[in-house]
Write a structure and sequence with these properties.
About 70% of the residues lie in helices and about 0% in strands. The model has no long low-confidence stretch (mean pLDDT about 85). The longest helix is centred in the middle third of the chain and has 16 residues. The two termini are about 25 Å apart. It is mainly alpha-helical. It has one domain. It has 5 helices and no strands. It is globular.
């Protein structure tokens, strides 16, 4: 699957609600699959994705991994 364009991500990070919704629609199928059809889990995953986008650091991409690890630690 093709990723959303960098310009779309930049627009969403800078507060463009339409860009954010386009990204969310892009990942709808993956969120639906990960949630197993449970609407509560779907909302939690979607909210997490929105938060990750809003905290995306365009100047320091490494900070994005640190944010995700701190917020959503892996359970390996």
């Amino acid at each position: 699957m093709k990723r959303p364009s960098y310009d779309l991500i930049v627009a969403a990070v800078n507060g463009d609600k339409a860009a954010l919704e386009l990204i969310m629609m892009h990942y709808h199928y993956e969120i639906e699959k990960a949630s197993g059809g449970n609407p509560i889990i779907y909302k939690q995953i979607a909210d997490g994705l929105r938060e990750a986008i809003m905290h995306y650091d365009l100047e320091n991409p490494d900070a994005n991994d640190a944010y995700l690890q701190a917020t959503y630690p892996s359970h390996d």
